[in-house]
C-alpha cells in the first residue's frame, strides 16, 4: 500500500513542477545561436500560435519566375523552440528555385498543384532527382544542395516543412554572384570565364 501512495505522490508532485510548454519568441529581444528569448507568458496570446501569411499566392513576375513565402520564427513567434516551420513556394511555368541549402534543417515538400522536378545532391555528388506530381512528397536531408523546377504548363504550388523554426538559407548563385567575392577568385574556383562572371554579378547585384 505504501508503494502505491508513494507512486501517486510522485505523480501529483511532478504535475505541479515548473513546466515550460512553449517559448514564444520575443521578437523585440536580440536573437542568439539558440534562437529568440521567450516572451513573458503573461504577454502570450493565441495570435502568437496562428499565422495567416501563406494563404495568398506569391508574385512570380521575376527573373526566376518563383516566389517563396516563409513561416519561420521571425514571422510566426509561436514556432520558436518547437523544431519546425513551413513555407509556401509558387512557381510559374518554367520557374525555378535555384540550387540552395538549409544548414539548420531537413526539408519535406508536398506538391499541391502542378508538376515539378525536384532534386538534391549528396556529399558524394550523387544526384537524386524525380519529377513530382500533385500529392507527391520528397525529403531533402539537412544541409544538402537541392532545387525545384516547374516543368509543367501551369503554375505549381508547393508546401514545405522544415525540422527547425529557423532552418537558414544559402542560395549558391547568390553566394557567388551577389556577394563581394572578387571575380578572379570566382573564376578560379568555378572555372567560369570573366564575361560570364561579370554577367551574373550584374544580374544578381554582386560586386568585386
From TrEMBL:
Domain Cupin type-1 residues, every copy: 52-198
SMART domains in alphabetical order: Cupin_1 (SM00835)
A Pfam family this chain is assigned to: Cupin_1
InterPro entries from the UniProt entry: Cupin_1 (IPR006045), Germin (IPR001929), RmlC-like_jellyroll (IPR014710), RmlC_Cupin_sf (IPR011051)
Assigned keywords, A-Z: Apoplast, Glycoprotein, Manganese, Metal-binding, Secreted, Signal
Signal sequence, renumbered to the chain: 1-17
Intracellular or extracellular location(s): Secreted, Extracellular space, Apoplast
SUPFAM superfamilies registered for this protein in UniProt: RmlC-like cupins
Family: Belongs to the germin family.
Protein name: Germin-like protein
Amino acid at each position: 500500500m505504501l508503494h502505491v501512495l508513494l507512486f501517486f505522490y510522485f505523480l501529483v508532485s511532478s504535475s505541479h513542477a515548473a513546466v515550460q510548454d512553449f517559448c514564444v519568441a520575443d521578437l523585440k529581444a536580440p536573437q542568439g545561436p539558440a534562437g529568440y528569448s521567450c516572451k513573458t507568458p503573461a504577454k502570450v496570446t493565441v495570435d502568437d500560435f496562428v499565422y495567416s501569411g501563406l494563404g495568398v499566392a506569391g508574385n512570380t513576375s521575376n527573373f526566376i519566375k518563383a516566389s517563396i513565402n516563409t513561416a519561420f520564427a521571425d514571422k510566426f513567434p509561436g514556432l520558436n523552440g518547437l523544431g519546425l516551420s513551413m513555407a509556401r513556394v509558387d512557381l510559374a511555368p518554367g520557374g525555378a528555385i535555384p540550387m540552395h541549402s538549409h544548414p539548420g534543417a531537413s526539408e519535406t515538400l508536398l506538391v499541391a498543384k502542378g508538376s515539378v522536378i525536384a532534386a538534391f545532391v549528396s556529399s558524394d555528388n550523387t544526384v537524386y532527382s524525380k519529377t513530382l506530381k500533385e500529392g507527391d512528397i520528397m525529403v531533402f536531408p539537412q544541409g544538402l544542395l537541392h532545387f525545384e523546377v516547374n516543368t509543367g504548363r501551369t503554375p505549381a504550388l508547393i508546401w514545405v516543412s522544415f525540422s527547425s523554426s529557423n532552418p537558414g538559407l544559402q542560395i549558391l548563385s547568390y553566394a557567388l554572384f551577389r556577394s563581394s567575392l572578387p571575380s578572379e577568385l570566382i573564376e578560379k574556383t568555378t572555372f567560369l570565364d570573366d564575361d560570364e562572371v561579370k554577367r551574373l554579378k550584374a544580374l544578381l547585384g554582386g560586386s568585386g
